[in-house]
Amino acid sequence: MRLSVATYNIHKGVSHLRRRPKMPELRDHLRALDADVVFLQEVRGAQPETSKKHAPPGNMPQYEFLANAYWFTAYGKNAETRHGHHGNALLSRYPIIYQENEDISAHWLEQRGLLHCVLNTGKTMPRLHCLNVHLGLFEHWRRRQLTAMVARVEALIPPNEPLLIAGDFNDWYRKGHRYLCDALCATDVFATVQGKPARTFPSFLPFLPLDRIYVRGLDVRGARIHYAQRAPRVSDHAALSAELEIVPLLSSAHG
């Protein structure tokens, strides 16, 4: 079965140049990606009345506005400020049968979370595990967060169930990339297709490989970068997408 996925740091839905809310344009862009599963970072979950100018209609959470009965959705709150709270969100065309947001903050200055969702992809298909992350800005913090991620995978995710890990890794030196691939036997979709991780930041002239899609137990069929000139300039990150293949359960094939 084919599966399309995407990841995007949406910068709280505000233009990084003019600080102007662009939620309708962002929703149209996500629809155009036509992904079955979308990993989002820096998503506003709630905003006070004083910040309503940056909110979707009715001041609803951004992830609900973006899903809009088109996807199932899950949200993990990471940070709370005077402007409300924000975190990671998952949009899925498949039912989300489990979700948990684990606090992986390495320092009180940076609140970070790992949103773990399990999707029901069909009667004859395996469960799909999705880990949505936005790692810290400092390497020693990222190492602690990656260690927590690996520990969660080893404890909770059976090796025969497919795994997707995506988000903003802030890993410009690719040290975390090597650690994650070795520790989990995971592969970066762009390293598979193009030989190295994709450059996604800044979106208008990208030279840093910050955003990633890692897979385990899934076949990679293609990968694509969605640069700013082909998308509304909502974020300072480019979006990534990938085409994958899930293998049906062997037991189902034999009845």
Secondary-structure map:
Blueprint: E1 2-9, H1 23-33, E2 37-46, H2 62-67, E3 72-81, E4 84-92, E5 96-103, E6 113-119, E7 128-134, H3 139-156, E8 163-168, H4 175-184, E9 187-188, H5 189-194, E10 211-216, E11 219-226, E12 239-245, H6 250-253
Helix pairs in contact: 3-4
Report what the structure shows.
Strands 3-4-2-1-12-11 form a six-stranded mixed β-sheet. Strands 5-6-7-8-10-9 form a six-stranded mixed β-sheet. It is α+β, with helices and mostly antiparallel strands. It contains six helices and twelve strands. A hairpin with an 8-residue loop joins strand 6 and strand 7. The longest helix is centred in the middle third of the chain and has 18 residues.
What labels would you give this structure?
globular; alpha+beta; 6 helices; 12 strands; 255 residues
What would you say about this model in short?
The protein is an alpha+beta fold and 255 residues long. Helix content is 22%, strand content 35%. It has helices spanning 23-33, 62-67, 139-156, 175-184, 189-194, 250-253, and strands at residues 2-9, 37-46, 72-81, 84-92, 96-103, 113-119, 128-134, 163-168, 187-188, 211-216, 219-226, 239-245.
Tell me, what's the shape? globular
In the predicted model, the low-confidence regions spanning at least 5 consecutive residues are none
The percentage of residues in β strands lies in 25-35%
The assigned structural class equals alpha+beta
- Helicity range of the residues? 10-25%
- Average per-residue pLDDT, rounded, comes to 88
Backbone CA Rg = 17 Å
